[in-house]
Amino acid sequence: MSGHSKWATIKRAKGKTDAARGKLFNRLIREITIAARMGGGDVSANPRLRTAVSAARAANMPGKNVDSAIKKGTGQLDGVNYEEITFEGYGPGGVAFLIEAVTDNRNRTVAEVRHLLTKYGGNLGQTNSVARMFNSKGIITVAKGDVEEDKLMELALEAGADDMSSDGEEYEITTTVDAFDAVREAIVAAKIEPASAEITKVVDNPVNLDANAAVKIMKLFDALDELDDTQHVYAGFDVSDEEAAKMD
Question: pLDDT digits over 60-73, tens only?
Answer without folding.
Answer: 889 999 999 999 99
